[in-house]
Amino acid sequence: MIENSVVVRPAKSLSGSMRLPGDKSISHRYAMLGGIAEGTSKLENFSTGADCASTLDCMQCLGVQWERNGPSVVIQGSGAKLRKPQEPLDCGNSGSTVRMLSGILAGQDFTSELIGDESLSRRPMARIIKPLEMMGATIESHDGSRLPLRVRGRRLKPIDYPLRVASAQVKTSLLFAGLYADGVTRVEEPIQTRDHGELALQAFGATIDRQMREVSIAGGQRLHAIEATIPGDISSAAFFLCAAGLFADSDLVIRGLLLNPTRARLLDFLIGLGMKITMTDLLEQHGELMGTLQVQGGTLRGARVAGGDSAALIDEIPVLAAIAPYTADGIEIRDARELRVKESDRIASVATNLRAMGATVEEFDDGLRIAGGQKLHGATLDSFGDHRIAMAFAIAALRAEGETEIRGADAAVISYPEFFTTLDSVVQR
Length: 429
Ligand code: S3P
Hints:
The structure is a single chain. The chain is α/β, with parallel strands linked by helices. The chain has two domains: 215 residues, UDP-n-acetylglucosamine1-carboxyvinyl-transferase, Chain, CATH 3.65.10.10; 205 residues, Enolpyruvate transferase domain (UDP-n-acetylglucosamine1-carboxyvinyl-transferase, Chain), CATH 3.65.10. It is built from 14 helices and 24 strands. Strands 16-17-15-2-24 form a five-stranded mixed β-sheet. The two termini are 31 Å apart. It binds shikimate-3-phosphate. Shikimate-3-phosphate binds next to α6.
């Protein structure tokens, strides 16, 4: 990735009307299931991020043909059996691609190799290796947990598996593997995580059984192509929602946004902080809820994020932490140790950048405490090669005194290549 810098100047408010590229979590799942379904899937508003492009490229190496025209992707499903790839599958920066695709590869009758960039090669994979091996796949890895992975697939055995880490990627991986097992695979989660895997399987015609925090799937089911418009990514919207919240005069409308309840905890949190958010035009497609939000800023109080909320807000915590100094009472984040094994160590990245802007921050093994009522100044910051850190600090910079330079800002391409241009179009200075 070429290093580039973006300079962000302070703002007065945010206003206007916008739509966001399709949700990353849903785009990955639809691309994978579209590839192993029968028939032609037509996906509108597919994520424009590099991560979902990695998934599409891997599917192509596995023999799946697709065509892309801007945000429209048409996938010719290959059916459950994929083709042995001629080269390693490059997952780039995308943990979702490695973890969820491994579930499908575990059920194929060939061996494939998964590789990724430097950040992805540091991230833990034992969480999928262990259960997929219990199902009968053989997975070689570096040190038992890191890329490259060599996945030798086979007809799988079903398992009954209690997840130790709350991870939707792992849950989805095992449900995908369950399609290739002789019998019923059951996954139990410690707390409910995003349910796009379950909804996508149902959309493509699979029957699954969902009871509270347990999901079961019978193997051998055939999937059928779908047509869908993917709702806007709520984790990308989080940057604009938080930015709007920083200014009393903001008035921002976001249309066609994903409002799936397992992702929308963010909205309750922001309303609790003091933002005014109204929801209209609700619509459901393939089980996914979407709608329009109107957001107005105000005085932000403070909050604590812990327990199940930390898992539900895991991708939004960097931007919540970045606006925390501007709240009246500050924000404390705990039970979020998983942040340390994301695209960067997000607890350390956030603390380093906030301190560079002059904030006082307490860092814990599993979170951060950031006092409210602080004044920040512009600074030279690093994205640490992490898309959400680059975007979170563009938002912190809007209320700082002076200009902020974000080095490695191009990391935003991973989930939201249009971020800086769109931000400029709604920021009033
Ligand atoms: C995702 C789940 C989360 C999240 C990631 C996307 C998904 O990861 O952080 O950005 O689409 O299932 P974990 O499963 O590691 O919690």
